[in-house]
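Task card 7
Instruction: Convert sequence to structure tokens.
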Amino acid sequence: MGQLSFRLILFLCFIQFVFSQDTLCVYKSKGTSLLNINNLQTSLKKGTLLNKGIVKVLSNAEFTAVDNNGNTYLINKEGDYSLKHLLNFKVKQNASNFTSSYFKHIWDELRNNSSDKARIAGVFRGDYLMRHPVDSSKIASSKIKLTWLTENDTTLYYVFIKNIMTDEIMKLETNGSQLALYDDNPIFYDSDTFKWTVTTEAFPNLDNIPFFSFELIDRTIYENLKKDYKAFINDLAILGHSETEIETILCERYALCK
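Output:
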């Protein structure tokens, strides 16, 4: 029985290895590119798996794909391509651990989203609602934007912001999924470090719910911290990301926000 289970595990690992090795997933697309499988054509979009068929890239179109190892592929030439030919468009990355780890994360996210409708819909299914700023964020902006996931059949949400130095807590009620505050709010006067949470309960026990922390920094500190991501930023720029998109990635993934 033990030997059978071991063989089954090896077989499943082999199947997963082969599938991942011979599969790309569309991360970003521009213009029109088509996937033809058995004479059935579909447009490429974020999350489309490429492991069979022929990809047709039309004029002025391009797309970026990723594999399970965090490699990226920028296909920006008109033509018809099999998977084997798509692998020739592999982008040479800078010597940055951030690039490969980020796109491995993207691969996992895209693969999960393809089979998890709840996550695609953005409906809360976990232990907390908070989305951004993520825990331990550094924010170099006079505007502090908070966003969170929503629950079905819930209209009111309660946001709590705690000044870590003074222990002062501000409570706000809203019927949306985001809230913006500015650094001239009195709660931000006496400290640079804060915690925030959001709940559907008007009077929760704040000692029993999770908080995310964030720190307000100036633009000079932001630019200095950004230097640590220089190679990663260059890789993203090569793949066609705008400055705004790069800033969003740094904020959402690495908690460095402008």
